[in-house]
Design brief:
Its EC number is 3.6.1.1. It is found in: Cytoplasm. Keywords: Cytoplasm, Hydrolase, Magnesium, Metal-binding. It is a single chain. The protein has 177 residues and is α+β, with helices and mostly antiparallel strands. It has a single domain, classed as Alpha-Beta Complex (Inorganic Pyrophosphatase). Helices cover 20% and strands 33% of the residues. It has three helices and nine strands; from the N terminus they run αββββββββαβα. A hairpin with a 6-residue loop joins β2 and β3. The protein is globular, with a radius of gyration of 15 Å.
Amino acid sequence: MNFNPWHDVEIGEGQPNVVNAIIEISKGSKTKYELDKKTGMLKLDRVLFSSIFYPANYGFIPRTLGDDHDPLDIVVISQCDIVPMCMVRARVIGVMRMVDHGEGDDKIIAVAEDDVSMSNVHNIDQLPPYFGSELKHFFEEYKALEEKTVLVEEFQDAAVARECVKHSIDNYIKVFC
């Protein structure tokens, strides 16, 4: 029996407020790992061409399907670098709307629910202003040397982010259930 974290891990009892996130890339990494949808293994997609690093832990929410036909992406803020393939309870606090290759590619912004340093953060406007700038800059630039462009739109609050999570759950159910 094959185990695939996209399909076989629960989204979390507290969704859409608190979801399970599967980390693919640790904060500070220059290595772009990605879930192989068929096998459920983590594969090396590429080493970033740019001299920048992931500003936060990055992964996906299981049992979701984004508009880009992949699991919904999630950025998990924590004081720690979280190892790839670790499951983290993540409190949804916002969303960064993005367009990549002409398709919607939302990035849910969350904090690690079990990180006490994040216990008072419930909405994106509670983060330091520089964090939003850093995250936006990263996603605008991380493909630039590959001559690919992405459009990063304004950050939206927790209520909009929770609607994005619900939408991606509905998409997943329509396609896979």
